[in-house]
Amino acid sequence: MSKDLVIGMAGSGGDGIISAGESLIAAVALEGYHAIMTKSFGSQIRGGESSCRVRISTRPVLNPGGTLDAAVALNWDDFLKFGAELPVGGNTVVIYEAKSGVAPDKLPLVGVAPAEAIAVPIAELAKQTAGTDRAKNTVVLGLLAGWFGINGDAIVAGIRKRLAKKGVKVGDAAERSFKAGMTWAAEHPLAHELRLDPPEGQRGPKLLTDGNDMCAAAAIFAGCQFFGGYPITPSSEIMQFMSREIWKYGGALLQAEDEIAGVGAALGASFAGKKAMTATSGPGMSLKTEIIGLATIAELPLVIVNVQRGGPSTGMPTKSEQADLFQAAFSAHGDVVRPVLAPTTVADTFRITVDAFNIAERYQTPVIVLSDQEIAQRKETVDPIDTSKFRLEERRRPTAAEVEDYKRFRNTDSGISPVSHPGMPGGNYLGSGIEHNEHGDPTASGVMHARMNDKRFRKLEPLRHERNLFLVEGDPGAQLGLVSWGSSAGVCREVLVHAQAEGLRVKLLVPYLLYPVVEETYREFFASVRAGLVVEQSHQGQLYRILRMMIDVPACVQPFCRSGANPFRPREIVARLRELTLAMQRHGSNTRQPQE
Amino acid sequence: MSLRGIDFTALVLRDALDLAILVEEEAEERYREFSSQMDLHDTPDAAEFFRFMSRNEQKHGAELAARRRELFAGEPRVVTRAQLFDVEAPDYDATRAFMSPRAAMQVALRAEEKAYAFFVAALPHLRDAGVRALFEELRDEEVVHQDLVKIELGKIPPDPDVDPEDFTDEPLAQ
Amino acid sequence: MTTTTANTGHACAPGDYKSDLKPIWCPGCGDFGVLQCVYRALAAIGREAHEIAFVSGIGCSSRIPGYTTAYGFNSVHGRALPIAQGIKAANPDLLVLAAGGDGDGFSIGGGHLPHAVRRNMDITYIVMDNQIYGLTKGQLSPTSRHGRKTVTSPYGNLEEPVNPLMYVLAYGAPFVAQGTPADMPGLTAVIEEGIRYPGFAFVNVQSPCVTYGSEDQMIKAQKEILQPLSKMGHDAANRIAAMDLAQHYGKDLYTGVFYRNPVPPATYEALVRGLQASKQAGALPRERILDLFLQREPQDEEDGGSET
Predict the structure, then answer these.
(1) A419, C41, C76, C131 from A422: Cα distances, Å
(2) Element (H or E) spanning B47, and its range?
(3) Residues ≥6 apart with Cβ < 8 Å to A236
(4) In-domain check, residue C6
(5) Chain C residues close to A425, C-beta within 8 Å
(6) What is the pLDDT, as a whole number, of residue B1?
(7) pLDDT score, position B108
(8) How far apart are CA A146 and CA A137, in angstroms?
(9) How many domains does chain C have?
(10) Which H helix or E strand runs over A30?
């Protein structure tokens, strides 16, 4: 019996591998398990290699996991194309298509001997029961349900729902294939037990969704009334969700002619007084830079979601990376500063997106949300979120008194000036990208420019001391520290569990607010460490570099980074932590006492 | 310059007076705008002259307004600025940066000539005797104004042979 | 006749739309005339200044919003149209104007134009077309004549100019007009009519640059050659006839309405309103939007689960 299973499946696009994964995760979510599903595929729109990983656990899962417990290969050519994304190890049970003709002891897996290998006549079973070998994926689901002890009814119901439009006959055929798989599994039990423990705690409804949909739903909840955008992988789903839902809340959406028009329209909507957002990926961010700078000097709230993908330039549209931080923090000419937030899981994407809208409104600034492809496009079970616990903020509008002799950019103590919008009598003003005085009139005065720059930076000062946008976990007395953000943080949180099990003392700092840098939080964290790693998916280690810019990072804190599409696995980080611990012990452990 | 929607044959004195006031108002505003342009573009002599013209127009307008109040106190105005287009106000394209005072005066002169032509052209269409009298008066006023400007012109030396643009800076990219 | 606002009933005068900011345009600039016509057109329409949003890009003519009392947004080069559309989509009750020069509109902004036209929001776009880049000191513009010598074409422009009228007519705009400050009443009339037209209205204005323009482009010269379309027997309901006349751009100066669709097509915002009305009925309350992601028992399943 196991508390945690990672299943990887691969085949070609026509095999319905990803639908199988979706059915599986839907069923286990209903059962009350925690689960994450990621998918990966080749560049053909149809018929290329296709794979998914489903991690199922009785405890909350924070990342897609490491080596597979079960590997399903509908054909070996495609399976092997995924290389390290579907890692087979000594404990893996490999289930593969008998038609491939490969003997169980002669699998084309280099340097790996899996725990068990079974050839299953999947195509044959599909043909017999459904009349087509396209039903392979349903046979596979039957096999998995049989071997893992997952309730078949939920899976069948899910499959039927998906096929509902195609008629009852198709649903019936699918159910037959599914049952054939279950029967085959029952008749051929695995030598290696792969049954899942029953789910822990109350079997309650879980939410099941991906980061993009969660982001869009959070935006609607936060009061977003306008979305302007342009399709780009891997963010298009945000726009698609909005295009289904935003009208229901009296909002509007524009799929614009290009990235610039998309963010331009969103900025216009913000100027008109509405909460507005756009979503894109790296190449779109580069195009939107000028308008983001305009939003900064015009002091207008705007939420910009960047679902990071492999870069630079066109890069790798379907792969994840965390290399847009420099751009998020620094791009746009002139002295600009804007908040940059990053979620770490599908679950916290809700809260971070709501925070983004609140911060944008409060400080009248563009806010960048750095999601990444992995979080955005993986399905994850999420415990129900109590939306009543969230406070929503609106921009500070001028009172009747303040509208008398209204100065749009009044240099208040906080730096935040009440902002009017077209339609508000008396609040008429000129918004512009050109530097301006308090009234909004264009200026070229050095004195005024310095004052306005100061205002725009000063108004964000409270964010530099915002501790609530950080997570600190692990052993508070540890002298070994990890810093990580985005999807990598989910891996590091699991690392803490492994480390504790091994007796390694580690603590973790996860910034949700990446910029401006909250210096005191990092200083405090680093004050007590004798070794540390900043874990992130970029060649340059961008957060590490930014921290080096802003604070004194001790030499013992080093980047643990690499280019994207090479996700971190908990084990490799644990291994490194083990090395660092040993090194610390060798150099004497009594020089710095843990802070109580 | 033109008037829109005015039927001269049916024009009554009250409306004629109001129109005349608006004509002066339009001209006054235009000269004020011109003086502002000249100030912004480092052409103080022309600025001063346009301010002088603006004050003149304002004075004429005030005189007409006083008369209107006397005759038609309490009656609302029914004609609007929307019906006038640069009757006496000089055309926008008349000004130039660094224009000489002489050139500025010539702008005013042409505007007065334009206004004169307007009143002359309107006269044959007017049926109301009081309105006719008013327009004749205004026409004659224009002649007086033209003479005033010609006097000012006489006071200043002729324009130098050189063009100020020969000495000024090149236009600057913004 | 006095004009009144739809809401308050109080009269609007052109002066109500004049701000305190003094224009930095060169004396003699055609844009002064355009500005005056804008004031007049707005006064005739009678909307309060605070209900008007006036968006521009970058250029001399893009300074225009600041010289009005409307809510102005002098944004970045070429992007007035997307921003204006965002404003209109967010609040369709506003009167939205967009303005800019020929470079702003047909060069860097050129890609936005066809989409703004086909989206057909009720926005009036005024382009001050002076065939030069004035603000940046006299470079070629997309409407500069072939052979024109400028600081970036000292041996003469090698390219043929864009024909703004032809483009916008071909894109399918429901209202296309041209005016010039050489005929202020005519220009006021087309701006006013464009604003009143329920859909995307394009007004090209031959507003000469007094600093970099050639003599034949000046107001005086224009007055000699301009021909009002209304006196040419042109049927403004005929798009092909309009395009035939538009071919003369650059050679003859035709003013007035080139094309006016007698059956105004539905605007984007009207369609949005329809969509909002039809979808609002079944909406989950905002606080319960996450219910869309709930995994339910098969027998509890209702319509409205999210697509996998």
Answers:
(1) 10, 19, 19, 32
(2) helix B44-72
(3) none
(4) no
(5) 48, 50
(6) 45
(7) 96
(8) 14
(9) 2
(10) helix A17-31
Mutate which of A248, A437, A438 to test chain C, going by most C C-beta atoms within 10 A? Answer: A248
Residues of chain B with pLDDT under 70: 1-2, 166
Strand duo A207-210 + A379-382: pairing: antiparallel
**pLDDT for A89-118, tens place per residue?**
999 999 999 998 999 889 999 889 999 999
Cα–Cα distance for residue pair C32/C205, rounded to 1 Å: 12
Sign of torsion over alpha carbons C86, C88, C90, C94 = positive
Hey, what are C193's tokens?
């009519």
User: Would you list the domain boundaries of chain A?
Assistant: 4-187, 210-389, 396-465, 467-586
Chain-chain contact of B92 with C40 (C-beta, under 8 angstroms): no
CATH 3.40.50.970 fits A210-389, yes or no: yes
The string of pLDDT tens digits covering residues C181-217 is 999 999 999 999 999 999 999 999 999 999 999 999 9
**Does the beta-carbon distance from B171 to C1 stay under 8 Å?**
no
Q: Where are the alpha helices (DSSP H) in C158-306?
A: 164-171, 184-196, 219-225, 239-246, 268-280
Domains A4-187 and A467-586 share a fold: no
Q: Which residues contact A576 (CB under 8 A, 6 or more apart)?
A: A533, A560
Nearest chain A residue (CA) to C307: A162
Contact call for A22 and C308, based on CB within 8 A: yes
| Upstream peptide bond of C185 is cis (omega within 30 degrees of 0) | no
| Per-position DSSP letters for C259-286, written without gaps between them | EE-SSPPPPHHHHHHHHHHHHHTTPPPG
What residue of C is the nearest CA neighbor of A207? C294
Strand intervals (E) in B94-165: none
Domain membership flag for residue C243? yes
- Residue matched to tokens 């890009």: C57
How far CA B22 is from CA of A314, A485, B73, C183, C299, in Å, comes to 64, 69, 17, 20, 79
Asked if A318 and A40 touch (Cβ cutoff 8 Å), the reply is: yes
ipTM of the complex: 0.87
Q: Does pTM top 0.90 for this prediction?
A: no
Of B33, B43, B82, the CB nearest to C44: B82
Whether domain A4-187 has CATH 3.40.920.10:
yes
Q: What is the pLDDT of residues A138-152, one digit of tens each?
A: 999 999 999 988 888
The mean of the pLDDT values for chain C is 91
Residues C263 and C295 occupy one common structural domain? no
Q: What is the DSSP letter of C49?
A: G
Closest chain C CA to residue A273: C90
Chain A window 227-246: which residues touch C at a Cβ cutoff of 8 Å? 228, 245
The DSSP call for residue A2 is B
Q: Would B113 be classed as within a structural domain?
A: yes
If asked whether residues C40 and C130 sit together in one domain, one would say: yes
Q: Which residue has the tokens 């970045």?
A: C76
Q: Which of A213, A249, A426 comes nearest C306 by C-beta?
A: A213
* A91 in reach of chain C (CB within 8 A): no
Residues of chain A with pLDDT under 50: 590-596
- Cβ–Cβ below 8 Å for B37 and C181: no
Residue B1 lies in a domain: no
Closest alpha carbon to C281 in A248, A252, A217, A253: A248
pLDDT at C159 over 60: yes
Q: Is the omega angle on the peptide bond into residue A312 within 30 degrees of 0, that is, cis?
A: yes
pLDDT at position C305: 35
Q: Angle formed by the axes of helices B129-155 and B101-122, to 10°?
A: 160
* Interface contacts A/C by beta carbons within 8 Å: 222
Specify the fold of A467-586: Rossmann fold (3.40.50)
B2 domain residue, yes or no: no
Across the interface, whether the CB atoms of B171 and C137 are under 8 A apart is answered: yes
Q: Are residues C291 and C224 both part of a single domain?
A: no
Boundaries of domain holding C90: 14-267
- The domain total for chain B is 1
